[in-house]
Amino acid sequence: MANKKRQIAEIDKVIGMRIYKLRKAGKISATKLGEVIGVTEPQLRKYEKGISQLTINKLNFIAKFFDKKISYFFIEIED
Question: Is 52 exposed, middle or buried (0-12, 13-18, 19+ CB in 10 A)?
Fold first, then answer.
């Protein structure tokens, strides 16, 4: 069970880092992206750091905002 929890945490970190990189490349503030998905800036930063798990719905909003397919966030994530 511990390995599964660690694996989930790693996935959260990878997805969060991809969100962070997209946001920075687009010069979008954490406050602005938070508003887009309906969360506060501190909560968005928790997602970006992999501390909190995103819902698939919020991840879908982010993907659409950056004109990406949701699969972009999962490409080449190892098991």
Answer: middle
pTM: 0.85
Residue whose token pair is 């660690």: 6
How do residues 11-27 score in pLDDT, each as one tens digit? 899 999 999 999 999 99
DSSP 8-state secondary structure symbol assigned to residue 52: S
Burial of 50 (0-12, 13-18, 19+ CB in 10 A): buried
Written as one string, the DSSP assignment of 58-79 is: HHHHHHHHTT--GGGGTTT---
* Length of the chain measured in residues: 79
Spatial neighbors of 14 by CB under 8 A, at least 6 apart, are 50, 73, 77
Q: pLDDT tens-digit profile of 49-70?
A: 999 999 999 999 999 999 999 9
